[in-house]
Amino acid sequence: MEEKKEGILPISVKLELKNSYLDYSMSVIVGRALPDVRDGLKPCHRRILYAMKDLGLVHNKPYKKSARVVGEVLGKYHPHGDTAVYEALVRMVQDFSLRYPLVDGQGNFGSVDGDNAAAMRYTEVKMKSSAEVLLDDLDKNTVDFKANFDESLEEPIVLPARIPNLLVNGSSGIAVGMATNIPPHNLSEVVDGIKLVIDNPEVTIEELMKIIKGPDFPTGGIILGVSEIRRMYQTGRGLLKTRGIFTVEEYANGRQALIITEIPYTVNKANLLENIAALVQDKKITGVSDLRDESDRTGMRVVIELKRNEIPQVVINQIFKHTSLERTFGAILVALDRGYPKLMNLKQMIVCYIEHRKEVVIRRTKFDLNNAENRAHILEGFRIALDNIDQIVKLIKEAKDRAVARAKLMEIFNLSERQANAILEMRLYQLTGLEKNKIDEEYASLLKMIENYQSILNDDQQVLNIIKEELDTVRSKFGDDRKTQIVPSDSELNIEDLIPDEKVVITVSHEGYIKRVPIDTYKQQKRGGKGVIGLDMKDADFVEHLFVGTAHDYILLFSSLGKVYWLKVYNVPSATRLSRGKAIVNLLPISQGEKITAMICVRAFNQEQALIMATKKGTVKKTNLSAFSNPRKGGIIAINIDEGDELINVGLVNKGNDILLVTNKGMSIRFPEKQAREMGRATRGVKGITLKDDDLVVDMEIIEREEDTLLIISENGYGKRTYFSQYRTQGRGGKGIITMKTTERNGKVVSGKIITDEYDLMLITTSGKMVRTPGKGISVIGRNTQGVRIIALEKGDSLSSIARIAIDEANDTIVAETIDSSD
Questions:
Q1: Which of 227-231, 271-275, 563-567 is predicted with the least confidence, judged by mean pLDDT?
Q2: What Rg, from alpha-carbon coordinates, does the chain have?
Q3: CA distances from 484 to 207, 267, 296, 492, 643 (A)
C-alpha cells in the first residue's frame, strides 16, 4: 500500500490464513471432536450430563422429555445446533453404541438396523447410575470450572470420573488434521489393569495385556489376532480385524442354515442383509436358498438357509470376504491431555487417568478437611458458650446491639468472629443437656475425621488405596463378562489353538484300547446304581484305567516295565461311549509284553513337584518332575523294575506330603515323603512296605490334608470312608496296619483313594459298565470294618477301577480331578 490510511494495518494474507486456520483447527480439536483422556467425554457429552444433573435427572427419579434436556444444554452451555446435541444424547442411550450406556432412555432411540431415533419431543431420558458415578464429588471442588459462552454460568472443564470412561466406552471423532477411534473395553479388565499399574508403575504393556485382553465391543463378535491388539496398545494405532459370530443348524430335511447371532461393532444389520441379498443375486455368494431376519427383543438371529449339500464354511467364507460381517476397525488412540491432543499407548492412558483420580481424591479430601475444620471451629465456640452460658446470656442481654455483643464475646472469651456469630445465632433448645452431649460427640467425631483427612493428604499410598477401593466398588456394581471373543489369526494359529481345551474322560482297556469321551456323556447316579455301558468290550477284555483330563494336557503313560511315554490328550482318538477306541500300540512305541499300568496328567514340568512311583511288590521311588520335561518319541526309563515286579501307580508329590500304600489283602502304610529320597530316573527305588507272602500293593495315594478321608473299594462292590486320624504315620518299609477286612463278602481290595464330600466317583467294572456316584453318599466308618455296598454288580462281574471327580454342585460341572490306576 502506498499510503497508510488511519485505522488500517497492512497484513500478510498467507500469515493471516495460517493463524486463522490454526485457531479454527484447535477450536474444533479441543471444543468438539476429541475426548479428554481423564473423563473420556467430548464437551457436548460432558455438558449433557452436567445439564441433566442440574435438572435432577438421576436414575431413581422420573424421566423428562429429551427436548427439555436439549434446550437446557443449548441455552446454558452449548450454543450449537439442536440436532447435534440430540444425536449425541441418543448415542449415550444406545446399548449397541456404548459398552456401558450413560443415559437411560424411554421411547425409540434407534436400532442396530440403522433406524433413526424418534423426535426429541417424543422421547424421555434420565441418567444411568454409571453416569452419576462420573459426576460424583463434583460439588467438592474436585475439578476446575470455567465460564460458559456468555459468562453467566460456570461449567466443569472435566468430570471427576470415578469410572475410566475413555477406555470402557471408547470414542470416535474427526477433527482438523487428526482423528480418534478408541475401541470400548471391558470394565472389569480395565479396573484390574489400572490397579496393576498403581501397584507396579514399571509394569510393561505385555504384562498389562495379560489382564486387559483387548477391546470388548457392545455388539460382541470376534477379534482375529492378538498382534494388532498388541501394536495398538504399544503404539496407539492398530488395524483390528473383526467378525460376526455364526452357528450352523441342521434341519430335518437334511439341509443346513447359517445363523448369525452377533455382528461387528458399528455394522448396520439391515444394510448387511441387503448386501448379502444383492451378492446372492449377482452370484458372488453361492449356495444360499433363503435369507431372513428373525431378530427380536431376546437377541439377534439372521437365518441364511443353504441349498442341499452345500458346505457351510464355504458360504460363510464368501460372506466374510464380500460383506461387512468381517471388517477392520482402525484404532487410533488420540485424546486430549490437559488440553493438548496426544497419541497415546495403553499405559499412558491409564497413567493419565490415575493422575486425574489422584488430583480428585486430594482436592476432595482438602475440601472435606476444610469443612470439618470449620465445623470443629464452630463447635469449639459452642462448647465455650455452654461452659459459660450464664455469663454469656447476661452479656448478650446487657449489650446495646448485635455488634457490641459480638465484640464483647470475642474480647472476653477469645472467640473468632465466626464463633461469636454462631453463638449469637444459637437457638434456646441447644442449651439443653442432651444437645450439649450431641455437640461433644460431634466434636469428637470431627477430630477423628480431621486426623484421617490429614493422614490421607500426607501419604500418597493412602490416596492410591482409596482409588483402588473406589474402582473395586465400580467393578462390583457395573462389571460384567466379556462380550467380544479374541481368537488367534490364521498366522498365529497352532494345532492347540484349533482344539477346545475341554474336559474329557480317557479310558484304557485291559487289552490296550484307548479313547476319549466328553465328560457329560456320563450322568450322575445315586449310590448302588447299575451304571451305563462305558465300552463295547470283546470277550475277556475290560476297562482297566480311567482318568479325567483336559484336551491340552500331557498324559504321562507309565508301563509295567518302568518306562514313561508322552501323549497329548487331544491326540487320543475321540470315540463314542460304546466304542472300543484305538489300540494304544498304534499310538505309542511299546514293546512286546509291555502294557500301560499307570497314567498321570500334567500341564507343566516344574521343579517344585516330584513323581512318586510304586510297584506291586512294595517298592517306591521319588523323582523330580522336571526330569520328565523333554518328551521323546521312544519313551524313557522312569524306574528300574526287578524281575517279576511291575509299576502300579504314580502320583505328584509336594514337600511335607505323606505317602499311603494300600494292599490287596487290606493292609496299608502311611509314611512321610521325605523318607523316600529323590533319585534320578534310571534307579530302582526303596522299600515302601513289607508284604506278606502272597500280598500285593494295589494303590498309592498322596496325603495333603488331614481333614480328608480314605475311600477303600473292594472287588465285590463294597467300600467305606475313614478319617486319616485312624491311620498313624509309620516308618517307611514297615508291615502297616489293617485298612479293610477282606472277607468273603467283600473280596480283595481293588483301590484306595482320598476323597471328600465335594467329589463324585466314577466306577468301572470288568464287564465295561460305568457308574458315577456322589462321594458324600458313602458312609464314614472305622478303619478295621467291612464297609457298605457302593455298586450293584451282576453275577460274574467285579469292580475293576475307580476315578474321583470334584464337582461344583451349583453348576454340576467338573472343577478338579485326579488320576486313577488299579492292578
A1: 563-567
A2: 38
A3: 20, 15, 21, 18, 59
- Cβ neighbour number for residue 635 with a 10 Å cutoff: 20
Tens-digit pLDDT profile for residues 385-434: 888 888 888 888 888 889 988 998 898 888 899 999 988 888 877 777 66
Q: Comparing C-alpha atoms, which of 585, 603, 586, 602 is closest to residue 594?
A: 585
* Residues sharing a CB contact under 8 Å with residue 199, sequence separation 6 or more, in sequence order: none
Q: Which residues contact 481 (CB under 8 A, 6 or more apart)?
A: 186, 188
Ordered by where they begin, the domains of the chain are: 41-160 (3.90.199.10), 245-324 (3.30.1360.40), 351-478 (1.10.268.10), 495-817 (2.120.10.90)
**Predicted model pTM:** 0.61
Positive or negative: CA dihedral 220, 222, 228, 231: positive
β-sheet bridge partners, residue 806 = 759, 816
Distance (Å, whole) CA 264 – CA 219 = 7
Q: How far are the Cα atoms of 666, 740, 781, 807, 821 from residue 759, in angstroms, in the given order?
A: 23, 21, 18, 6, 17
Judge whether 710 and 754 are in contact, CB under 8 Å: yes
By annotation, the residues acting in catalysis are 122
Residues 466-508 have pLDDT tens digits of 999 999 999 999 999 999 999 877 665 555 655 677 788 887 7
Query: How close are the terminal C-alpha atoms of the chain, in Å?
Result: 111
CA distances, 799 to each of 535, 747, 766, 795 (Å):
15, 10, 6, 12
Helix orientation angle between 66-76 and 43-54, rounded to the nearest 10 degrees:
110
Give the three cell numbers for residue 81.
445446533
Buried b (16+ CB within 10 A) or exposed e, 151-161: eeeebbebbbb
Between CA 42 and CA 88 the distance in angstroms is 10
Nearest partner of 134 among 211, 52, 217, 218, judged by Cα: 52
Q: Which residue has the cell 482402525?
A: 330
C-alpha grid cell for residue 708?
A: 480328608
User: Which grid coordinates belong to 643?
Assistant: 524281575
